User: Fold this.
Amino acid sequence: MTDQHQHWERTYRAHPEMYGEQPSAAAVYAAQVFGAADARSVLELGAGHGRDAIYLAQQGFHVRATDFSAIGLQQLRDRAGTLGVADRVDTLEHDVRQPIPLRYNSVDAVFAHMLLCMNLSTVEILDLVAEIRRVLRPGGVFVYTVRNTDDAHYNSGIARDDDIFEHAGFAVHFFSTALVEAVARGWELRERHAFEEGELPRRLWRITQSLR
Assistant:
């Protein structure tokens, strides 16, 4: 178990439902995009305690929710059961540094809110995106959000390699325009939308891209 893995496990144990019960604005947007693309199955990477996975299930999608935190996923399952959507949510404990244990072309859409900007190197990010491409069906849609290099925490805190900086125990890889373009190589980059969320406030991009 890595330091970041242990940190997230401790965080979810100490702060159940730390992000609240309401879905992120990115998930609300993603549900609209996925619905317009006639998606039925959604893979969420980095689902945490599940506020977005549960929202997507409530919108009628079948969601495969993954995270490396067993504690977060248990909280997700408990709430899905309470809200009556357990039959539309499957969970999988998974570290995104490893291959995604799904078949080729097996999901209609992929969603990742603040996952790609975790403590992942550029090489690991690009490897993950190759895995997303493998499991996503032709014409499928990928929506993700990341903190970007306009964020107040960029170039501050504990500096690591590869535009990664650590604050309060959380390591973040801040995305540049060049990295967004690298992630979209071989895809159709449909939108790069700038928005703010939470304290500071955090400055993010919401990226929508689809397989050609």
In short: The chain has a mean pLDDT of 92.
